[in-house]
Amino acid sequence: MSAYLDHASTTALRPEALEALVAGSARGAGNPSSLHSAGRRARVAVEESREALAAALGARPGEVVWTSGGTESDNLALQGLLRARRAADPARRRVLLAATEHHAVLDCVRWLEAHEGALVTWLPVDGTGCLDPDALEAALRHPDDVALVSLMWANNEVGTVQPVARAAELAHAAGVPLHTDAVQAVGSLPVDFAASGADLLSLSAHKFGGPVGTGALLVRRGTTLVPLVHGGGQELGVRSGTLDATGARATAAALTAALAHRPEEAARLAALRDRLLAGLLQVPGATLRGAPPGPQRLPGNAHVTFEGCEGDSLTYLLDAAGVECSTGSACQAGVPRPSHVLLAMGLSAAEAAGALRFSLGWDSTADDVDTALAAIGPAVERARRATGSRSARARRRVRPALGAGVSR
Ligand code: PLP
């Protein structure tokens, strides 16, 4: 028995998306910019998919810019908007964001800070990872140098849902546009671009059962972006490059399928997740992180820290038992780092070390939950023994050194 519980990192292709991919690839899509019949057919595919995506997300078709996925959408939003705002008013170089954002946002902003003189205000979050709107309001009290606010719709590690509509209201009151990274939310939560008030919204197809390598940035009418790539002038010059008609069809098919029964599916996932959580929290030293189950948490997200364990060891042990989950945070150059999200939520590095994220998706079943629950207890015991013997070895190494250097 095996259980894939890492849908937040990528989820299986939905049958509707697979069918669209196979049909489009078999046909030979044609270039949507070509004038001949094949090109015009490809253009129809792109535009029909644009319309479907827009209708599903409360946007206008003209507000959809196709991209290669979440990372590109975030970069186009942040770099493109910051540069456009600075071109109109050089004083506007400040970005407001929380430290719990995905690396696609964080590292882009840090790059802009290091290379283009952007200024950054880090907004605090509470113990569940939720932004305090009062802190945003305070940061917007003197908005003259503020270029933009970026606030993710839902966190990819702990699943916390952010007050995006309230943040957009506050930003607009100060004359500042807002970008939201909705990569984890689209397909899972009700996302209405118009109602949210956001000016820019990033999404990625492989998170809701579409193909890897396709996504979109929703750009509110009237929002100016400086393009990142220059070329054929596709997507009204905002994002040059031959459009992927087949990918667009598959993305629209996946989103339509994801939203067809979204409320029932969210309830089904939340019930599975709650049973998983109840079992995980039986393990001594296990603590739920993020918001309590409910509307402030993604329905498929269970994030737990296990005291005295290394998350990486746990993922290997669980993998050996057929359970695929993740620590939720990136390992840099092979070195496990405590999650920046958990640190921003106020956890110590030691507490954050034992983090595991289980994320359920459209093809998750009750058997997946049973498999994970059967494996977790023994895995935690073994991971703790491993951590214990590593610390004992480290203590043995440190003691003589201390003894040599310190007179008592
Ligand atoms: N933003 C969030 C919140 C994500 O979870 C991810 C992917 O994990 C991304 C952005 C990047 O998306 P992509 O993999 O499509 O580049």
What topology emerges from the helices and strands here?
Layout: E1 3-4, H1 15-27, H2 37-56, E2 64-67, H3 70-88, E3 94-98, H4 103-116, E4 119-123, H5 133-139, E5 146-150, H6 164-173, E6 178-181, H7 193-196, E7 200-204, E8 215-219, H8 245-260, H9 262-280, E9 286-288, E10 301-306, H10 311-320, E11 323-324, E12 331-332, E13 335-336, H11 340-344, H12 349-353, E14 355-359, H13 366-405
Helix pairs in contact: 1-8, 2-8, 3-4, 9-13, 10-13
The chain binds pyridoxal-5'-phosphate (PLP).
Q: Indicate the mean pLDDT.
A: 94
Provide the structure class: alpha/beta
Number of domains: 2
Strand composition percent: 5-15%
Number of helices: 13
Bound molecules: pyridoxal-5'-phosphate
Give a count of the beta strands, DSSP E runs of length 2 or more.
14
Would you tell me which CATH topology of the largest domain applies? Aspartate Aminotransferase, domain 2
> What's the gyration radius in Å?
23 Å
CATH architectural arrangement of the largest domain: 3-Layer(aba) Sandwich
Fourth-level CATH superfamily of the largest domain: Type I PLP-dependent aspartate aminotransferase-like (Major domain)
The neighbouring-strand order within the major sheet is 2-8-7-6-5-3-4
One letter per element, helices H and strands E, the order comes to EHHEHEHEHEHEHEEHHEEHEEEHHEH
User: Multimeric state of these chains?
Assistant: single chain
* General form: globular
In helices, the fraction of residues equals 40-55%
Regarding CATH, which class of the largest domain?
Answer: Alpha Beta
Straight-line distance between termini: 57 Å
